[in-house]
C-alpha cells in the first residue's frame, strides 16, 4: 500500500469518525447529588407512534434516551433530552408525545430536537413520570435534573452556573 493511499484511508476514516462524534457531559458527583422530593418511578417505551396510547394524559417529566435494545452489548444508553409538561399549561405527557411525533412527521420543530428524533429513530426511548400533584413544581425539578445530567440536546432551564459555563465553553 502506498503512503498516499494510507493517508487517504486515514482521512476517510477520520471523516466517518467525526461524523458520528457527539459530546456528552459526565459528572458522577452531580449525578449523585441529584435529589427529588418524590420517588420517581420511570416508565420507558420505545419512541414510536404505536406507543402513543400508552402515554398518560397527565402532567409530568420525561426524557429521551438513545439505547440499543435488544443488543448483544451490555445494557447501556444515554439521556439526550429532558422536559416537563403541564407545569404552567394544560399540557400532558400524551399531548407532548404527540407533538414530537408530529414534528418528526412534518420534519419541523427545534433543530436539535428534530435532529435527535430523526438521527436515532428506532433506537430512541421516551421515559416518563406522571406527576399529577400540582403542588409540586415541575420547573424546579427540571432545573435540578438538567444541572445534574446536562443532556446535550437541552439548551435552556439549567441553573445559572451551568448555563454560564455551557455558553462560555468552546
Structure report:
It contains six helices and four strands, in the order ααβββααβαα. It has 170 residues and is α+β, with helices and mostly antiparallel strands. It has one domain (24-168). The radius of gyration is 19 Å and the shape is globular. The termini are far apart.
Radius of gyration: 19 Å
Low-confidence stretches: none
Broad structural category: alpha+beta
Biggest sheet overview? 4 strands, antiparallel
State mean pLDDT (0 to 100 scale).
88
Task: Please report which band the strand proportion falls in: under 5%, 5-15%, 15-25%, 25-35%, 35-45% or over 45%.
Answer: 15-25%
Strand line-up across the major sheet:
1-4-2-3
Shape: globular
Order of helices and strands: HHEEEHHEHH
Count of alpha/pi helices = 6
Distance between the termini: 38 Å
Counting DSSP E segments of at least 2 residues, the number of strands comes to 4
> How many domain modules?
1
The percent of residues in helical segments reads: 25-40%
